[in-house]
Amino acid sequence: MSGDRMDALIKAIIGDAARENVHIKPDDPVIVLAVIMNRVIEDQSAAIMAMLDQYREEHAVLAHQWRDDAKGSANIILNSALAAARDSMGQAMDEGARKVVALVSESTARAVAEQKAAGEATVTEMKRLATWMLAATGASLVAAVLLAVLL
């Protein structure tokens, strides 16, 4: 505390006391106590302000570091979620492809079986008709030979 400020403080204390009808001398212990208290308060205020400034600086550094860490963590989480979604989608697509292949195979097998059955029925019918045609041709040949021999 500078000398001018100390003198001003002493005069202010004496003035306040005079207004209250209390007489204090400049070298009175009350003045000394008030000046010491004022100096302690100013020193404490300065120390508190310095600590507050240091706190603000540290807080700003920590906040900046936290933001950077949060961005990094968010990127890690997002990349992990994307990888999990990609794996899940791949599994779903594989499962879907297997189902499609199974359905196509089943439909194809059913269609081939139906065509095979229809082909076998056609072959059987053609064999039956060929047998009847051979029998009719044989009977016609026998009839023709009989007619030729008899006539």
Give the number of DSSP strands: 0
Task: Specify the helix fraction band.
Answer: over 70%
Beta-strand portion reads under 5%
Average pLDDT taken over every residue: 86
- Count up the helices: 2
Provide structural commentary.
With 151 residues, the chain is mainly alpha-helical. 92% of the residues lie in helices and 0% in strands. It has two helices and no strands. It is rod-shaped.
Offer a quick outline of the entry.
The chain is mainly alpha-helical and 151 residues long. It has 2 helices and no strands.
How is the secondary structure organized here?
Blueprint: H1 3-19, H2 29-150
What key phrases describe this protein's structure?
single chain; 151 residues; 92% helix; 0% strand
